Amino acid sequence: MFRNFLMDKGMNLNSSLPKSIFFLGSLQAINYIVPLLVLPVIISGLGMTQFGVLALCVSITNYFVILVDFGFNMLATKEASENRTNNSYLSELFFKVISIKIIFSIILFFILSLLAQRVDIINDNIDILRILFLIVISQAINPLWFFTGLEDLQHFTIINALGRLVYLILIISLINSEGDIFYAALITSLVPLIVSLVLSLDAINKYNLKYVSLSLSRNIAYSKSSFDLFLTNIFTSIYINLPTIIVGQFFGYSSVGLYATAEKIILAFKNIYSPISQAIYPYLANVASQSPQIAKNTIFRFLSWYIVLGLVMAIFIYVFSEEMVLLIAGNEYPGAIQLLKLMALLPLFFGVSNLFGTNTLLVFGYRKQFFYSLFLGSIFGGSALFVSGIMFSVDEVALSILITEVLICCIMYIQIYKLKVFKLHG
């Protein structure tokens, strides 16, 4: 059926697009199935409170990950795709992005130390956060953007799968008590760092990349070119990572554990969309520059599949929420069931907004409209989250996230409608 769907789009089935979707799908499956498998082990070993501490620290670390990415994950992917046959350009691009990210990582580590002196929630967990900072370094040297742009993900998926297997074995073997939280943090951050290092070396060897030394002025200029994408990542993180911090600040670490349990389940469903979105992005970027109408038709057809898939997932999550929580967290934490039900529609609106934003507005060069949509959504989302934390409960925090995602989805469609990219009535 999916083969017929691609043929109906006029896509070349001998191209690397179906393979990219397959390998990115496998990668996302590994990235989110493995954490779901280890989640019961971590909760059972650390307890819900210490698990909440770890989840809170990971959410804080994710802000630094976004800062170190600086929008390169989209801009550099597009450039790699458009210049895939130019080895000298690829060499310059690869080392330019990696070197800038490493410099950012060093600066961000000092910023983390400064924040620990002023922010209690960071100071209380600074030892764990310093261990988890290895994730930031891992992200700096991770070449997923490079392999995605070249639509060559087989090696990446295999190496990443081996890393996840090691992570699974280490967590099961070493996490047995509340005092093992530091081991959990070290495993969570060290394994990705080693995997990223191996993948970078693989990219250098496979594509015969030659080190290119760039001047500071050129690095600064390139960073400026992705600044608007960097801001959009910051705005996105407000309603993705901030909820965990809000819950920790106002409701305590046990509530963070409950929220994180429901969130990880939702995340597994949300990221079913990610391999498709990531794989078709470089494809659409190429097609849009040659035949915009084919790209528009492809996006419109994918939209119908996204909606059907999202509705099926929402029904499944709502109906089987109790069974999933009991399987992962046990019968001692029923509070996560209600949170899961409240967020059941999140995957649907996440997928559609991703299609509208990354795969439509960015593909056709409407970066300003993409930025505007996320800016408005993040302002609303951040305000709603703080109000929910101060005046209401964790349930309202979860509901605020859903409303924010719906709002962003609507704003993006309004932008697309105004730009006459396509209309829902065809």
Short overview:
With 426 residues, the protein is mostly helical. 83% of the residues lie in helices and 0% in strands.
What does this protein structure show overall?
The protein is mostly helical and 426 residues long. The chain is 83% helix and 0% strand. It contains 21 helices and no strands. The protein starts with a helix and ends in a 7-residue tail after the last helix. The relative contact order is 0.12. The model is unreliable at 1-14 (pLDDT under 50).
List keywords for this structure.
426 residues; mainly alpha; 21 helices; disordered N terminus
Report the order of strands and helices: HHHHHHHHHHHHHHHHHHHHH
User: Count the strands?
Assistant: 0
Helix % is over 70%
Q: Mean of the pLDDT scores?
A: 80
Rg value: 21 Å
Q: How far apart, in Å, are the first and last alpha carbons? A: 22 Å
- Supply the number of helical segments: 21
Question: What's the SSE blueprint?
Answer:
Elements: H1 2-8, H2 17-69, H3 72-82, H4 87-116, H5 120-123, H6 126-132, H7 134-141, H8 144-149, H9 154-174, H10 181-206, H11 216-225, H12 227-240, H13 242-251, H14 253-270, H15 274-290, H16 292-319, H17 321-329, H18 335-342, H19 346-362, H20 367-391, H21 394-419
Helix pairs in contact: 2-4, 2-7, 2-9, 2-12, 2-13, 2-14, 2-15, 3-4, 3-15, 4-7, 6-10, 7-10, 9-10, 12-20, 13-14, 13-20, 13-21, 14-18, 14-19, 15-16, 15-19, 16-19, 17-18, 19-21, 20-21
